[in-house]
From TrEMBL, chain A:
SMART domains: Transket_pyr. The lineage of its organism: Bacteria, Bacillati, Actinomycetota, Actinomycetes, Kitasatosporales. InterPro entries: THDP-binding (IPR029061), Transketo_C/PFOR_II (IPR009014), Transketolase-like_Pyr-bd (IPR005475), Transketolase_C (IPR033248). Its cofactor is thiamine diphosphate. It comes from Streptomyces vinaceus. Keywords: Oxidoreductase, Thiamine pyrophosphate. This is Alpha-ketoacid dehydrogenase subunit beta. Coiled coil: none annotated. It comes from the Bacteria. Gene3D superfamilies: 3.40.50.920, 3.40.50.970. Signal peptide: none annotated. Pfam families: Transket_pyr (PF02779), Transketolase_C (PF02780).
From TrEMBL, chain B:
Residues 17-38 have a biased composition (Low complexity). One of its GO terms (biological process) is branched-chain amino acid catabolic process. PANTHER family: 2-OXOISOVALERATE DEHYDROGENASE SUBUNIT ALPHA, MITOCHONDRIAL (PTHR43380). One of its GO terms (molecular function) is magnesium ion binding. Residues 84-354 form the Dehydrogenase E1 component domain. Its cofactor is thiamine diphosphate. InterPro entries: Alpha-ketoacid_DH_E1_comp, DH_E1, PdhA/BkdA, THDP-binding. Keywords: Oxidoreductase, Pyruvate, Thiamine pyrophosphate. Signal peptide: none annotated. NCBIfam families: PDH_E1_alph_x. It comes from Streptomyces vinaceus. The gene is pdhA. This is Pyruvate dehydrogenase (Acetyl-transferring) E1 component subunit alpha.
Length: 326, 404
């Protein structure tokens, strides 16, 4: 029996363990990932079992972490680096955008960049500044990068391994407020494609599209709407680059309405791209404009205000009502 | 890999003291020189061939003696080879500058004046060593066996590099200043993990030493004791910014703060550059970690063909450096010592002509890339959006061909 109930954090840990076991070229690198096991314990116990040569505590220097990972990848290794928190990725942004994303193209395909950048991201844990941000659109905008985010334990387990197996650089956003949510993981399953969307709940009146931490909110909204007789379909996008527009289109052509939900600021965010593309693809099917629910064009607020800032059940349901009113 | 204590790897050249007693050292560690106290002071340099073309003997200079041991095997024929490398590199560089002026290249970053630093360090390398250059290492590329015309693609605008770095262990040119020092460090970490005894060399300039990435590369290489040589060509100018705008102490002394040795070498002395780089590479191979080599040299031309050095520096300065020309001093020595005759120089001139002609022909014949190359190699594993946009653009282009 390979089906086990575990938290997202545990699933990520097991996934890294399996990757380290299966390929001696896989390395874990980051601040505090060794003895401490990471500030969220995602790498707990890995250094003990695989040694300091495979699970590497690094100096406190994000550009250095990503820059040396690029060099290790050029040498044939498959580094999985941890950026401690979302807001700390920016010192490494230069290396990610100008080097990691472009190396394959600059070498006319002669070198590959199998580097995974794991980033615990988004809000909801009462943290201080720079610990709650959702910068996924900044990475999805960059050609050469792939960007994904799991919303449940099974995806956490499988998507991380698929990201490590990929010869492209993958920015792997982990929804930190869901780390302790449990779900079933079938470690013998044949996983779905890394960049395919998944229908998390079937419905017929409207589609909610989300990823990472907002999938759970959307599922709760769908359950609440069902009590009012509304049938809400929830699509877990799973990947922000590429986005599975084909999968989303199938859902929208069925329900004829779409609301995109994410924590990141709405302006020029992932939802904007989805609204534009789905409008192009589904113009004659849509009964209402694509609506977006997300963060404001303001710095992520102090923790005491984050419940107001983050899209919750009510804001999602309000958008559902507005869409259905057209 | 264990991290040696700083004491065990006490910096030699930058500390102003003799090397730590008992320090394990496979490569002979040269004795220290008195450090220059200010950036503008006449610098103390490791020099084996004077600007007047005279060899420095062990008797003349005890410090140089320790480096001389690293070029004991260099024959007169080897010296002619180094001379040939410098001459052909200068010719290639001059040809590229001319091609830019003729509109064949969009930009060129000339190495004029830096031939000795590049050929000396480049010829110190073994085939299995790995090079991480900036965008000016045409002489190092030459030493690696990279066809020089390959270097011109990015300057002509037909690619962003385009060669396979693993063919000659010569990485792509990197334009973002200092980024490649981290790639070199990571690569060197991998070399150490593999248990290989090869070394890695990262090239950068004096301006790059102000970049955070270079400081982080020093930090990572020091704490992981990585087999990497940081070869800084201090050519005195970062576009229009003089070294005074980058640092207050001599550059090579920075290594001391990171816990590894730094040494300043006469960057216009090909023999000294060869010796010092060999010494640093030997340290790397022996597991003694990183070294910073500061090659004190001068960029005789512009930063690139886009700037005008007359706006920011004095003629007298350039003229003073002309007297230290790396090629001229070796020619003087070869002639005076009977190491080469006129027939050698004439034959080399003919070879230079042929190289120049070939470079011109290849560049002018270099085709523009296929339009659809825009979509190639963006991802190794493919990407739905790229596929979609490729198909759309192909259909758009086809619509003209069909006469719609």
């Amino acid at each position: 029996m390979a089906v086990e109930k575990m938290s997202i954090a545990k699933a990520l840990n097991e996934s890294l363990r399996k990757a380290l076991e299966q390929d001696p070229k896989v390395l874990i690198m980051g601040e505090d990932v060794g003895k401490l096991g990471g500030v969220f314990r995602i790498t707990d116990g890995l250094q003990k079992d695989f040694g300091e040569e495979r699970v590497i505590d690094t100096p406190l220097a994000e550009s250095g972490i990503v820059g040396t990972a690029i060099g290790l990848a050029l040498r044939g290794y498959r580094p999985v680096v941890e950026i401690q928190f979302d807001g700390f990725v920016f010192p490494a942004y230069d290396q990610i955008v100008t080097q990691l994303a472009k190396m394959h193209a600059r070498a006319l395909g002669k070198v590959k960049m199998p580097v995974v950048v794991r980033i615990p991201y988004a809000g909801g844990i009462g943290a201080v500044e720079h610990h709650s941000e959702s910068p996924e659109a900044l990475f999805a905008h960059v050609p050469g990068l792939k960007v994904v985010s799991p919303s449940n334990a099974s995806d956490a387990y499988w998507m991380l391994q698929q990201a490590i197996l990929s010869d492209d650089p993958v920015i792997f956003f982990e929804p930190k407020r869901r780390y302790w949510d449990k779900g079933e993981v079938d470690t013998d399953a044949i996983p779905g494609e890394l960049h395919k969307a998944r229908v998390a709940r079937e419905g017929s009146d409207i589609t909610l599209a989300a990823y990472g931490p907002m999938v759970k909110v959307c599922l709760e909204a769908a359950a609440a709407a069902a009590e009012e007789g509304k049938s809400v379909e929830v699509v877990d996008l799973r990947s922000m680059s590429p986005i599975d527009f084909d999968g989303l289109q199938v859902s929208v052509e069925k329900t004829r309405r779409l609301v995109v939900v994410h924590e990141a600021p709405v302006f020029l965010g992932t939802g904007a791209e989805i609204a534009a593309r789905i409008t192009e693809r589904c113009f004659y099917h849509l009964e209402a404009p694509v609506l977006r629910v997300g963060g404001f064009h303001a710095p992520y607020p102090p923790a005491r205000l984050e419940d107001e800032y983050l899209p919750g059940l009510d804001r999602v349901l309000d958008a559902v009502d507005r869409s259905l009113a057209y | 890999m264990t991290v040696e204590s700083t004491a065990a790897r006490k910096p030699r050249r930058s500390s102003g003291t003799k090397r730590a007693a008992g320090a394990a050292s496979a490569a002979k560690a040269p004795a220290a020189k008195a450090a220059a106290t200010a950036q503008n002071a006449e610098p103390q340099l490791v020099q084996l061939l004077t600007p007047e073309g005279e060899r420095v003997s062990a008797a003349d200079n005890p410090d140089a003696a320790e480096f001389l041991s690293f070029v004991e095997d260099i024959t007169t024929e080897d010296l002619r080879g180094l001379y040939r490398d410098m001459v052909l590199t200068r010719r290639f560089d001059g040809e590229a500058t001319a091609l830019q002026r003729q509109g064949e290249l969009g930009l060129w970053a000339s190495l004029l004046g830096q031939e000795a630093a590049q050929i000396g360090s480049g010829r110190a390398l073994r085939d299995d060593d790995y090079v991480f250059p900036t965008y000016r290492e045409h002489g190092v590329a030459w030493c690696r066996g990279v066809d020089p015309t390959n270097l011109l693609g990015m300057f002509r605008g037909v690619n962003h590099g385009g060669w396979d770095p693993n063919t000659n262990n010569f990485h792509l040119y990197t334009i973002v200043i200092g980024s490649q020092t981290l790639h070199a460090t990571g690569y060197a970490m991998g070399v150490a993990k593999d248990g290989a005894d090869s070394a890695v060399i990262a090239y950068f300039g004096d301006g790059a030493s102000s970049q955070g990435d270079v400081a982080e590369a020093f930090t990572f290489s020091a704490v992981y004791n990585s087999p990497v040589v940081f070869f800084c060509q201090n050519n005195q100018w970062a576009i229009s910014e003089p070294t005074e705008r980058q640092m207050r102490v001599p550059l090579y002394q920075r290594a001391q703060g990171f816990g590894f040795p730094g040494v300043r070498v006469d960057g216009n002395d090909v023999l000294a550059c060869l010796a010092v780089t060999r010494w640093a590479l030997a340290r790397a191979r022996a597991g003694e970690g990183p070294t910073l080599v500061e090659a004190f040299t001068y960029r005789m031309g512009a930063h690139t063909t886009s700037d005008d050095p007359t706006k920011y520096r004095r003629d007298e300065e350039t003229q003073a450096w002309e007297a230290k020309d790396p090629i001229l001093r070796l020619k003087t020595y070869l002639l005076a010592s009977g190491g080469a005759d006129e027939a050698f120089f004439e034959s080399l001139e003919a070879e230079s002509e042929a190289l120049g002609k070939r470079v011109r022909e290849v560049v002018r014949a270099m085709p523009d890339p296929d339009t659809m190359a825009i979509f190639e190699n963006v991802y190794a594993d493919g990407h739905a959006l790229v596929d979609e946009e490729r198909a759309q653009f192909a259909a758009y282009l086809a619509s003209f061909e069909e006469g719609h």
